[in-house]
Amino acid sequence: MTSPVWHPFTQHGLNEPIPTVTRAEGATLHTADGRHVIDAISSWWVTTHGHGHPRIVAAIRDQAARLDQIIFAGWTHEPAEAVAAGLVRLMPPALAHVFFSDSGSTAVEVALKMALGFWLGTGTPRHRIVVMEHSYHGDTIGTMSVGARGVFNRAYAPLLFDVDTLPFPRAGREEQTLDALRHLACAPDPPAALIVEPLVLGAGGMLVYPPAVLAELAAICAVHDILFIADEVMTGWGRTGTLLACEQAGVVPDILCLSKGLTGGAVPLAVTMATDRIFDAHRSPDRARMLFHSSSYTANPIACAAAAANLEIWRDEPVLDRVAELAGRQDAALARLAARLPLLAPRRAGTITAFEVDQPAADYLSAVGPRLLAFFRDRDVLLRPLGNTVYVMPPYCVDDADLDRVYDVIAEGLHAIAS
């Protein structure tokens, strides 16, 4: 019987197999047909400590038995208060306000609303948003608008608003990116905000740029009073080697978007953190100046309990030591692979490695991507190339044997498509 499920980023007309996963532990997925699959992309970049972390599982189980859901407009609960307080302690002190939402996309939507609401609240409305070439911030209308235009959103172009785009700061061309922002900043109608993925552009192909560029982008924004929004939905929670990628540039954004690893990857939750300046522009006796955003499940208690447990793990356990150790193993594994095979632009940022396959089509619909995906799937490794970009982003608990197996399968796959 054909399943009625309509899967994301899936062309059902190709009739590709869709395995059923029944349980997971650590870096391993178990399927209904008895296979053990290595989760080499952290189940779409969300799983940090590993699947089924006992402390997070216990927190979810306990909270579900006490309070499952409550409206968050005008009401509160202990798990949300604990998460907000824990985030304020863990993140840069200037980010003193926490707005809950449900996913990375909605965290960015909230950030854009905060930015526009700030300028309206200060009596000097600004409307223009600056983005970076090849960026991706989500699949809602606002986040598609601030992401790269192309096959992802071509059908929805009439719904999207215009933005100003900076060229990606490729090696040797960083100054072009900075000059483009300086030019926009000096325009008669200056931008409201710049939004960036710090250091690594995820869905754009795991493109990496240096901390010095990020620092200079933030400095230009500060000089010209342009709000700086850091989308750390993917790059946060240790992925780039530090708790936040912004740390490596010494940057504190005006608005910070977090999700994915916020709950350790167990359940959906997101936050948008903001400075006093952003919050105070919305705070008023005038009800018309409030931030008009919510969803039915804002700050769901069960999700917040998972996030609170994750924050305790970060507080009590040597997570960054594990991140550094995995980064070193990833570096060595990629070097061994590059010594065996010709890789284009091999690179590592924290626990993420990536490279391009020597194929002519360098876009999401490159034919090499599905061929490699099927090859990896058939050999019990979950890897999902971005076009002809192959990347590895495992949970921090992955062991040496599984990581070696991932790179061995990659090598086999590259040999297979070459022949």
Give a written overview of the molecule.
The protein contains twelve helices and 16 strands. With 419 residues, the chain is α/β, with parallel strands linked by helices. The strands form four sheets. A seven-stranded mixed sheet has the order 4-12-11-10-7-5-6, sandwiched between helices. A four-stranded mixed sheet has the order 1-2-3-15. It has helices at residues 42-45, 54-66, 78-90, 104-121, 141-145, 174-185, 211-223, 276-282, 301-316, 319-340, 368-378, 400-418; strands at residues 21-25, 28-31, 36-39, 97-101, 129-132, 164-166, 193-196, 200-201, 207-208, 227-231, 255-258, 270-274, 344-349, 352-356, 381-382, 389-392. It is globular, with a radius of gyration of 21 Å. The relative contact order is 0.16.
Topology (elements, then pairings):
Blueprint: E1 21-25, E2 28-31, E3 36-39, H1 42-45, H2 54-66, H3 78-90, E4 97-101, H4 104-121, E5 129-132, H5 141-145, E6 164-166, H6 174-185, E7 193-196, E8 200-201, E9 207-208, H7 211-223, E10 227-231, E11 255-258, E12 270-274, H8 276-282, H9 301-316, H10 319-340, E13 344-349, E14 352-356, H11 368-378, E15 381-382, E16 389-392, H12 400-418
Parallel strand pairs: 3-15, 5-6, 5-7, 7-10, 10-11
Antiparallel strand pairs: 1-2, 2-3, 4-12, 8-9, 11-12, 13-14, 14-16
Helix pairs in contact: 2-9, 3-9, 4-8, 6-7, 10-12, 11-12
